[in-house]
Amino acid sequence: MIRPILIHPDPRLKKMCDPVTDITPEIRDLARDMLETMYDAPGVGLAGPQVGAMLRILTMDCSKDAETEPQPMVLLNPKITWASEDLSTYEEGCLSIPEQYAEVERPARVRARWLDLDGTEREQEFDGLWATCLQHEIDHLDGKLFIDYLGPLKRQMITRKMQKLKRERARDGA
């Protein structure tokens, strides 16, 4: 089921999420819905709070080109355990901040630990777009948006655009 994506400035997007304590059928349904919503948007990552689920769950799949097999990932309670000193800059966007992009500098490589949907602890190193996406989505779980890395003027401008978009959508009944 495709879920509605919250648009900034929704207060839920600025809240710290609770850990997933049990892998229930509801958590599996949420993960499936999040993957479906992410692919439909289309996006490469989606965090629980973006669909109103205030839990430490994220989905991602950065295999973007048509020749590459999809590589959907569901990460429960993800935690970065190491980050490289070398940095990379990506032009980031966000499904909760549609059609707004800005360059954000982050560690180029990270290692993370998480639980999969079977309750197995996993650990993996990520680089490139995968590393950027993972850090972006974990930020969501901590109540942080990519625009928080920008200067106050640019952040205010984007926030005003999102407020206007929300008013227009409410007026149009979307």
Kindly summarize this structure in a few lines:
The protein is of the alpha+beta class. It has a single domain, classed as Peptide Deformylase. The protein is 29% helix and 29% strand.
Main β-sheet, in a few words?
5 strands, antiparallel
Q: Which structural class is indicated by helix and strand composition? A: alpha+beta
> What count of helical segments does DSSP give?
3
Q: Ends: how far apart?
A: 17 Å
**Mean pLDDT across residues:** 96
Radius of gyration: 16 Å
Beta content = 25-35%
Which CATH top level class fits? Answer: Alpha Beta
* The number of domains: 1
Instruction: For the largest sheet, list the strands in their spatial order.
Output: 1-2-3-6-7
Helix content: 25-40%
Low-confidence stretches: none
